[in-house]
Amino acid sequence: MRPIFAIVATLACLPPVTAQRKFHPDKAVQKGCDVLLEMQEGSTKGQWPYEGVYRVGGQIPVGYHVGGTSICARAILEAPGYEQSKERRAAVKRALEFVLEELEVPLMASGFKGGYDVRGWGHTYALIFLLRLHELGVVPTGLEKRVAEKTKWLVDTLVETEIRDGGGWNYSRRRGPSSAASPFMTAPTLQALFRAIANGHSVDESVIERALDALDRGRTKSGGYKYSHGAQSANKIPEKKLRFMDVQLGAVGRMVVTEATLMLAGRGDEKRLAKSVDAFFKHWQHLKDRKQQHGTHIPPGGVAPYYFMFAHRYAAQAISMLPASKRKKQHRKLVKTLAKEVEKNGGWNDRVFDRSRNYGTAFGMLALLQPDLTPVPSWRPGMAAASDAMIGSWQGMDGGPLLHIEKERVFLYESDELKIQRAAVQPASITTWRGAAEAKWQVKVDGDSLVLTRDGATQLLQRVEQRPAKLIVTPLELGTGQPAEDAIPAIREQLRERVEKDQAVRDRATAKEATEEDRAEMRAVDRDNTQWLRGKVAEFGWLDVARFGRKASDNAFLLVQHSGDRELMLGVIDKIEADVKNGELEGDAFCLLYDRLQGYLGKKQLYGSQLSQLGNELVLLPIEDPDGVEARRKEFGMQPLSGYLKLVEKAYGKKVRR
pTM score, two decimals? Predict the structure, then answer.
């Protein structure tokens, strides 16, 4: 018999380049990755500290270390080719380990010290980095638990550290709890929290509402935004009455990020959004004049040099939210501005410090990548309740599908087939996984009606109070009969013949030259074997070692494993476990079947035996409590997970992504 492997079937600043030099955005992003990889520093070579004029005890504050590292790591993570680059994956893992470690130091704890404290800036961009690792499914193996814990901690910390009076966030709080909110920090922090909410984290809606109110109050009559603003609204203040730091000339970076954030929260306006992008290009030269200059807030616009690349990054986001008729033209225009400022080494830098090139390069890369980035999720009041409203059972109109939604899995019955998949329920959508392949459903609940959009088709379903029987999986009832002595040899022989046929058809169906006919034949053999085995199990119970012998029970196990029959598997899994604990079957057989059954039930595996093919690589499917997987494998006599995966790679000639 072939070895058992479980592959799921779904298996000093440089001058700008000359105008004659050709600029290719895709190549520029890849070159940016090279720049960042070269700049990663520290004792573990795991960080990209942002360097500005602000110091704590003469040193770059830890918030700048964490925030800068998170921004740079995210840029590398988002760039095409990440999963194929061992060097980039290793760099992001080192960065993640650094960020997780630094979040433990006292100066990154929840709170605020003195009149100026940039830890919140680090909290915001660290949260975005950790969430994107999770969303992309690329959290390094062994760090899943720490990432989950720190993600929740960061969400809670940002909520706790809002400005008590008036809402929002600011790294300058000279008036204590009555300090003014900064749009430069409040808008990105809101976007981080929107993403967290979409990933199932709980956030007090009043915190979001207060921060949005703070942004709204900061808008001036010209459409710009004050550098910081407190309880008084600036909506009616004309340009001539604003202090020099608040005029539109210097507000273009604040305008684009704030208008984009307000649009995400349903408080924006397309005209204002378009106006913010126009203002960015109109006043771009003023941003350029302040780039790589000393001093921070200099008249007439009060622009600090470090807002040059910030403005480009968030202008790109604002452009991506414009109507399609305007989007392409404005993005091309933005690419041209970035092409003007790229340095000979392929990076961008808006400061006088060499180290700030990492931050500038990362924001330049994200600006170029923006059209292909996963959009920040939108937010509306009551979204948490909207997510909860999806939970339950639904029936399609006019013979449509049956659907049952839980927090972490969905049951879908259509075309006479029940599919159960892992899922993440968000306020307006459900992300589902079939093996390693991800799909997104758009969902809208209105009372007892649910509008489901998937694969380009929209269906209307109505809530049903009682879960339909077709959406319930029950174990196959085992028989209690005893086979006649002369019947046992015949059953053994039938098992042997069926396994021989199973293996022969699988050899053909899994060969490189296999045809669809070969695969169809394999499915037909599986159906026939399953039907036969169900009949025997329903009559005699599990074909155990005590009555049928070791070889026959092994053969019966193989047929169960290949059956894909949830009811059959549920019915016999405990009996197989009993044979294993009695020393009559191998432990890895039970673990393999258990994990496969978990997958068929839309749950995470427990022993790490299941992989799925995605493109040209194999992906280890999610593990429940990954920190305990080695102990569980050892209990059943299984080899360490790393050794198992090496055998899989050798057997299939493909790398395994964990």
Answer: 0.66
